[in-house]
Every structure is written in C-alpha cells, then in structure tokens.
Amino acid sequence: MKTHTVSHFAKWQRWRAGRPWLGSCLAAVLAWAATVFSGQGQGSGELLTVALTFSAFTVLVSLGQMLVISVGPGNADLSIPSSIALSGAVAMLVMDGSNAMIVPGILAAVLVGALVGVFNFSLIRVLSIPPIIATLAGSLIVMSVAIAIGRGLKIKPPPLFSDFMAMRLFGIPLLAVVVLAVSIAIALMLERTVLGRSIEAVGQNDRAAGLAGMRVELTRFWAYVICAALAGLAGALISGFSGGNSLDQGQEYILLTIAVVVIGGTVVSGGAPCVPGIWSAAMFMFLLVAMLNAAGAGPGLRMLLTGLIIIGVIVAASSPGKR
Amino acid sequence: MSSLQAKRGVLVLHNILPALALSLLLAAVFWRQPRAMSYFGVNLLLNLAIPLMFASLAQMMILAVSDLDLSIGPFVSLAASIGATLLPTRPALAMLAFVAAVAAYALAGALIESRRLPSIVVTLGLSFVWLGCAVLLLPTPGGLAPDWLSSAMAYRTPWLPMPIWMALFAAALGHVLVTRSAFGTLVRGLGGNPTAVARVGWSLVRLRAGVYALAGLFGVLAGLMLVGQTTSADPNIASRYTLVSIAAVILGGGKFVGGYVSPVGTVVGALTMTLAASFLTFLEVAPDWQVGMQGLILIVVLGLRAAIDRLERIA
Amino acid sequence: MINSIPEMLFEARDTAKAFAAVQALRGVDFQVRRGECVGLVGHNGAGKSTLMNVLSGTLAADRGELHFAGLAVGSGWDVREAQRLGVRSVYQELSLCANLSLAENMRIAQPQFKGWNWRLAAGAQLMATLDRIFPGHGLHADQVVGELSIGRRQMVEIARAFTPGALALEVMILDEPTSSLDNQAAAQLLAYIREFVALGKSCILISHKLREIFTVTDRIVVMRDGQVVESVLTEQTSRDRVVAAMGQDEQVQENPRHVVAQTGSAEAPLVVNVSSTSAARLGVKAMAGEVIGLAGLAGHGQTTLLLRLQAGSATRAESSVWVGGATSFVAGDRQTDGVFGLWSIARNMSVGWFSQLCHRRLIDLKGEREYAEHWRQRLGLVTPDLDLPIFSLSGGNQQKVLFARALGSSASIILMDDPMRGVDVGTKRDVYALIAEEARRGRTFVWYTTEFDELFHCDRVYVFNNGEVAGELSRAELSEERVLDMSFDKIAA
After folding, report:
1. pTM, whole model, 2 decimals?
2. Domains in chain B, CATH or no CATH each
3. Which domains are delineated in chain A?
C-alpha cells in the first residue's frame, strides 16, 4: 500500500518535471479570475480576447528570446526594442499604405530584423564581449538608424493590413492563430531538426556539443538571427495593429521577453526551451497588468512587481549549489 | 628576446590605453575649443564625470567577481530620486531608504552566490525594481535636492577644478580598497578562482554579499552627487550609466571574467567616456545620430580592448 | 622501526558518500597516526579524491564519523574547522587564483598577515618555505600566478600549504602532488615529506606513481570501488601485492592478447595520417580496422592530438593532419566533455546519430527510439526507461551511453579520450569486447588511455612526451618499462 503511494508520487513528480509551463499556466488562470471577479465591467470573454491579442505580440518576440537564452549562459538579445522600431518603420515605408505591398513590406521587416541579428552576432564574435553588452551597444546604433528614417513618419498601414490585424475567427483573434502557427513551427524545429537539437545541446554544454560534432557558433548565429527576424515580423505587425509605426513601440519588450521566457519554465542557464510556457507566461504577464490596473496600481508598482516576480521565479527554479 | 620586448610593449599598451585615450580626447577638445582650457572650462567639461566615476567603481566591484550589474543605472537614478524627494524633508527616512537599498544589493549578492543564479538576470530584474521604486517616489521629473548637497557640489575647490580632485580621490579610494587591501585581494581572488577561495575556508556567500553591498554604497554616492549637481531628479536620470559604467571599467583595463580590474583605469575610463560625449556635442552631430554615436563609441572602446587582448595572447 | 605505537591523529569511520547514482565511498575506515606518512593508492574512480575531500572538509559525507586527536568531530566539519585543527590539503586541480600574485595567494590562504605591509610579510614567508622545499626554484613573491608554468604553480601551491602560520599544521593531504613536477622537484618534495613527518606531523599522499609511494610512505592503503581493501606497512608489502589489491581483474588482463589478434592487416587503407612538425619526431598513422593506443604521462599531448583529428575530419584546417573519414569522439571527462545533463538517456545517445536519423531534414522520432533501444540491449545498459534523465545512471552506464553515441554513428574512426576513467570492471569488459568486434568490422580506433593494461587491447601504441610522439611500439614489443622509458627520456635529458 505504502509503496503504491510512493510510486504514485514519483510518477507525479516526473509528470510535473516534464511540464515546466504548469506554474505559469496556473498563475495566468488565477490572474484572469482575480481580474474578472474584481468586476471592473469587462466581461471575462472579452478580457480573454484582448489578452490573446496582446499576448500574441509578446509570444512572437519571446519565442526568439527563448532561443537565444537557450544557447547558453549569458546569452540574451537586448536589441529587440530597436529591431522592432526599425522594422516597423521599414514596413510602413515599403507598404506605403498600399494593399498590394503588404507582403513585400512584411518580408522587408523580417529581412531587416535578420540583418540586425547578423550584426548582433558579428559584434559578439568580433569583439568577444558578453552578448548582453554587444546587443545593448549595437542596439543604440540600430535605434539611431530607426530614428533617422522613422522620425516624423506618418504613414498609415494599408487598410487591408489593419483589417487583418483586427479580424477574429469565432471570437479568436486571427493574429493569435498566426502566432500559434509560428509557435508550432518553432516547437517542431526544436524537437525534430538538427538545428533545434543543437540549440539545446550547445546551451547545456557547448564543449560537449562541439565534441559531439555540432557546429557551436553556427547554432548560436541562427538563434540570434531567428530571434531578430521574429522581432522584425513583430515590428511590422505592431505597426499594422496600432495604425502606424512609432519609435517606442517595442520599448517594453526587453524585460517583458526575458520575464516571459523565465516565468514560462525555460531554463535560464540554457539548454531547455519551453514553447507552451511562452504562451502561458505571456498571458500571465498581460493579465497581471490588467489586474494591477483594475486595482488602480500605477506603472511604478507594475515594474516593481515584474522585477520581483522574475527574481522570485529564478530563485524558486534554482537549487542551492555547491562548490 | 624580441618576443619578450613585444610582450612588454603590449603590456605597456594595455596599461596606458585609458590615459592615452583621455589625453587624445582632451587635446582634440582643446583644439576645437581653446577656451575650455581653464578652471571653468575643465569644470564644465568633466563635471558630469563625477557621479559616473562612482557608478563605474560600483560596476567595477561587480566585474571584479566576474559578474555583471545591469541595474546600476536605475539604482543611481533611484538614489538620486530619494535625494530629491525624501532627503530634504525627512532625512532620517531617506537614510533608512539608502540603508535598505544597500542591504537589498547585499541580499542579491548572497542569493546569486548561494543559489548559483546568473547575475545578469538577477540584476536585470533588480533594475526594474529600482525603476519601479523611483517612479513610485517621483512619478514626474522634479523634486529638489537639499541645499547643503547642491552647494557642496557647486563648491569652488582650490587649485584644481572639483572633477580633478574627485577623480584623484576616487582613484585613491578604489586603489586602496581593491588593489592594495587584503579584502580587495580576496575579492579579486573570488573573481579569479572561486573554488580556490572556498577551499581555504572563506564563506563565498558573505564575500559576494559584501562586494554587492559596497557596489550599492558607491551607487548611493553616485546618486547623491548626481542630484547635487542637477538639483532635481527623474526616474530615468542615470539609465545610461549601466552601459557607460561597463565601458569605463573595460576601457580602464578590466576584464569581464577572471577578476582583473583596475580602479585607477576605471576612473580614467569614466573621465574619457564623459569627455567623448562632450566631444560629440562639439562636433555637432545631428541629434538623430547621437544615440548611435554613443553606441559606436562603446563598440570602438570594446573593440580596442579586444584587439589588445588578442595581441597579448599572441605575444 | 617504530617501538611504541604512536597516537592516532585523524580517523574516518564507516564513511559513505554518493553522487547522484554513483556510490563513491561505501563505508570507508581510514586512519593516520602522528608522525606517519600514509600512501593512498587505487585506480581512477576508486574513491581516493572523494575521501580526501571529506577529510579536508570540502565535501560532507552522507554517513560516518570523523575523529581528530581522539575527539569526535561532529556534523560541523567543514574547511574552516579542518584548518583550525591543522588539516591542510593540496588538491589535484590547482587551487591558486591565476590573477593574483604569489604573496596575494598566500594572504588568501592565511589571514594572519595584517597591517599596511602584509604583502611583504606574506611574500617573505612563502619564499622561505619555497626555499626550504624547492631550493633554486627561481620564483618571486610578486609574480602573477597566471604567468607561471603549470609545474611552477604546483610548487607554489605545495609551498603555500606547508607554510606555517597562525593556524596549526598537523596533517597534510597531498593529492597527486608530483603530477606536473619535473623529476628534480618531485625528488625535493619527497625528501621534504620525510623531514616533515620526522617532526611528528602526518601526511597522506595520494599518487599513481607506485615508486614514489614506496619511497616515502610508512603505510599503504589501497582503495577499490569506494572501499579500503588493504592497509599494510610499506616494508611488509611489495609492488605486486599492491597492484593485485588495486584490482587487476584477471579476465581483463587475459582477454586482450588474442581477441584483437587479426585486426589491422597491412593491406588495409590508411585512414589517419598526422605528420610531425619536426623531422626528428614521428608522425601518427592508422589503417582501417586498427586499434591505435596513445600512451605516456597524462597531459602530454594525447588529448590534443584527438582534438586535432576531430577538427581535421570536419574541416581541412591543418595541412599536417589528414583524416580519411568521419570521426566520432568518446569523452573520458564525462561531465565537461560528454554528457548533456538536462537530456534523457535516449537523447544523449541520439545526438551522435543525426546523419542516419534524418529524413527530409526532420529527425525520425520512431527510428530514434528503436535505435536507442537497440543500443541499450547491445551494451547491456542497466536502466528501467530510456526517457529517464542521464544522471539517473551510474558513471559506468553513463560512459556506455557515450560509447553508444559514438559507435552508433556512421563515423568510421572513433576517437577515445581515456574513456574508462572511473568505470567499473564489468563495464570495461563489455566495452573492450565491443571495441574488438567493431575493429574487426573495419572501424578504426584511436585510444588514449592512462591505464597501462588497456594498451594490450591495441595493435600499435604511440608513446607521447611533451606534446610529441616519443616512440612507437607494436603489441609484441609492449612493456611497462619501455613505455615509461619513452615517456620520461626527454624530461631527464
């Protein structure tokens, strides 16, 4: 009898260990319930739809950040806001309000993002400095370019593009469906391609990965490029959603993406990305803000709490180490 | 023989690079603006370097133990915000806030060591804690620094302008604390080989907590000096310090890992970074590109260091 | 000889320690008397270093008691307490801070140097000890450790530990202290150890070099598989008895001579060719189906050669290295070079198999599972489920996973970096048979080993010395004396 319960517990622990997104999922549900029951007028369904729309942007950008964080300790892309600002401006310039140019505009935005990724990675390699510093320093230059070409730009997105961004399928934002498809593609890439397995291996132990025949630096290159390209795509979509580009449209995504990745159960020191966790954590972060807004908290408290939650989550996920 | 000479040459280059960069920039500024070559001119040019020196010393403490502090900019902003809000009206509460902030820094250090956390993520999280606190204290730019602080920062020092005195003081303080003292040796040892330090019986948790507390103390000093100069504060007043302080330490000869730091170099690095920013205004760079030029300066500085390191490895 | 039995100084009783699934110590009893030098010997992974770490306080034992000078020391045993009572250690991996000077490293270890001029005092004391142990060392107190050769660093670390100070010094534990010292310095150290114990101090010496153990110790303790299997006075034992006690497994020794006899025929094509940089030295060649052994002292260029071969098959980076086929690497240092700790057992295997498992650029998950199952059976891997994390396996089974990763790949050349470190006898036997079988099918093995007996599994052996090949031996010519001669001649010269 006793051994029976023990084995059940062990099974449950294993089941739990294989699903690092459970915590954030539960937290998201709680935040949603708290907001709904505080009764600030919004219906529960409407709140969910809004949450899905905004989370979709967060997810899109955080997926890239997840890949970068997964290629090893010290890797993170802090140039995401600049990439979003620049690619948003480029997308609006290329589309120039014409429906026919929507696809080229999006492609141009993705391409610009990818180029920023190449730039980031070459800074990291050439200067041999920590990626955080390289991407932050590089982002200043990217931002300057964005300011130079994007300031005072008042181009409206093509009407078809705006409609598409606001469209819903059975109450679910079309945007969320698109981002879900991207998420599935990334999950498939991680599970079933050599690149995906290499990302996990390099993040766990780059020396062992090299000895097992993987291309360590090439793997990191792709992580940075995919991350920046996704940020580029997000830049175009955000511009389409908010009726034109602005330079600070990506500002919040430095902390937000890292928070979402960490809270979603991806291992901070690399090697274990978690795609479902990105969704639940993004929903949680949005609903948390909604909850705080409903409770009348200002931006200061919001930032304070976000910071504390990140630290709390990585402390909870860690274990006391030995030397 | 010649390889030994080459090695010495590279070492000399390593050590004098910060001083060389500073002299070149100074010469360039004086050449463009001969009037700057005076007590007031130098004061005006380098005044902004005073808080940055102390912020860079804070960053240097963290780099000395092979960590990175991404929160020093917001922390200095918070200290400045406290200085412009609580300090004039409720000084005891302000002191308490400073003590709590330093204690929070120490706690972060202890957590990073005992739970093996990446300093980058912890300090990134902290940066938003500081920013959040600053916004709560000072929702819109404003506040007023206490008179004693403003007048102290405006004091006309004898013989040399205040930035020079401050630089000498900061460099001497850092040198004694980190390069000469037994504690500083232990700190650099922790950055170089933590296992070795643990094996001779030191508590790494207490050590790292102490290092972070000192960094917090330097950060508070930087914030107070900054708000003394500007007399009012805003929650983002020092946000660029995070990157610039890292650049100052690296320009001054520090390394990201291995416990190699130079306090004197760091102070010179802070002066150089400030001067570089002033020089940009002299060059009348279009406002659109000023942010980019800052990034470019950072990249050039880090690139120069990387090149010298590479030379060192070859020689 | 000793007339009255001297006082028992330091004692461990029934000490056990496990790392995840690996039982490193299984109830060890160990004693040191005052004025005694004890030699601790055993193969890699026998538990010597773990025992040393428990004694010196860097690891807490799971079970057991420690007694010092007759008093039980409780659960509060840590480095600080050990040092307070006078237990000091010199570890195998060096424990100096490379960014600090000699004097500064001294200060970190001993806090009694105070005041403005602590640097001078600390430096002077360290230099005094260095002069005593290693006269003519040529070191300076303000030299930075990072600029010293590895041998010099070891001298500094040894001298630092022997430097008296505010803290007592009763027991010195030395873990392979001569591994990077040249012959002269090693002899100086051994002589000093005798002086040290003559003063009534105690010493525990861990060494692979039995010659040293027999020269300097009073008593020899042999460990095997986490247990003490023999403890005997040095003068009452012999080299052969100690070697036998260390666990020279009979089956392992008998197997090799006939198993691989017919591999490596002369007509087989050349698959590896490394030409030497200097004309005086030999290059390295390997034919298809050959098992090539790399011998010599640890760290004399064997691993470097394997890495060059690995790089040489991926890219033609070096003109002096020619590799005619794909290579696969079997790491010996599992934690740093081999295992992916967050992955399951199956994933850790399949990471070497992508070229076979990919169909239209996608990994075939079903094939992956079947292939992993195949190798689990072929290697006799002891686990209930291949989806369990890799660290649920014992060290030997983890090593089997690394062999599966390499042997299951399509690579025709297998590079092995001392892969039997800390592996149990049963696993070794399985793997030796597997290597012989694969070699017969035409696979080439380049095998670096630190265990002499494994060289009998090779067709030809290259002996390394100072990064170069010092000599080549066929299996018929192989003997421990010849290998040792070749490994040492340049150092002596």
Report:
1. 0.83
2. 13-314 (1.10.3470)
3. 43-312 (1.10.3470)
